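Journal club prep — side note

Before the paper discussion, L.F. wants everyone to see what a predicted structure for a comparable chain looks like in token form. Sequence:
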Amino acid sequence: MTSIKKTPMMKHLKTKIIFIAILGMIFSINSVCAQSPKLDKKGNLISMDDVDISSMVRPIPDNYIFSDSIYNIWCGSVVKGNNGKFYMLYSRWPRAHGHYAWLPSSEICLAKSDKPEGPYKHVKVVLPRRGSQYWDGVTTHNPAAIVYKGKFYLYYMGSTGTKEVKMPASMSDPNWWQYRNNQRIGVAVADDPEGEWTRFDKPVIDVSPDSTAYDALMMANPAITVDQNGRAVLVYKQVAKNGAMRGGKVRFGVAFSNSLLGPYTKSPTPIFESKAGGKSWMIAEDPFIWNYNGTIYAIVTDVVGLFTNKEAALALLKSKDGINWEQTKYPKVVPHRLKFEGSIVSDDKLERPCLYLENGVPIYLFGAHGVNKRAYSVNVAVPLVWKK
């Protein structure tokens, strides 16, 4: 075999290739370091700001899907019980009634599992119908559960109405909008998720009597946390009046209280705003919030792509006071389409996020997910994998 003589040009090319390879390795190492959560000696997360959730997302296994053959499932909020079990507060309504029947037909239920990712099994209906004379007598939806000082608090949207909605439900039905505009936010409390939940005859926070207020028409989608000073921080969807049945712009507000049971004091201006998004009908949706080391974080639907440059379905934001918010270092959370095991790509985006954390580190991202163009819906647990 004839040997090939190495010319100076070839030696230079080899050196250049090695140099590029080394740069690639350095870049790769730096990327892993930037994306991997940094822990202290006790195993607690040092800073959420250094976490890139999008790099941790893995395909969803079949047994991480919570479904029901009779009901649509939505809005899963997961907490750990005092008994070491895991509980999901979730919404359900009959599949046969169609996706938009969530508004006149939803009820909040409880499911239980030995592990945070599941599998979950239905336990009972937590907030059933109780009569149209109550503010939440027909519909309960949007559960957001939190454990504080050994007690379990369940924030939720409730609605009522007397008009009949034809099934399968549709937004084109004028009667549907009665229930939409009667949405309010309440709280129920329990010592044990499997025990009795105490609900109240009035919302914990109500629409503003000022007809020009951002929340003059309706409110929904509560998200709750407690800050480092023990102050309850409540984030919620708000819709203004504009003379039309649909109402005006959809925004999010924040209110504060010294007690999880209220009363709450509202901040006067919307949050999650963007300098470029003031003209948009809606900017953010479906918040999940939590407090870590004095900073409040929020995962929100990036409706028009202002927080992630349209590169992700969900965005990660942060705030020191609950009023002023900004994007984190790594704002992208999950892509617009999820992957399931077996290389199956979803045809819907993740909604109603709920993050499960251990020692401050994100482990699972729960969310509602439509299947087959929302022929029915389920709740999924997205695995978030990181290297120690």
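L.F.'s comment for the group: The chain has one domain: 55-383. Keep this in mind when we get to the figures.
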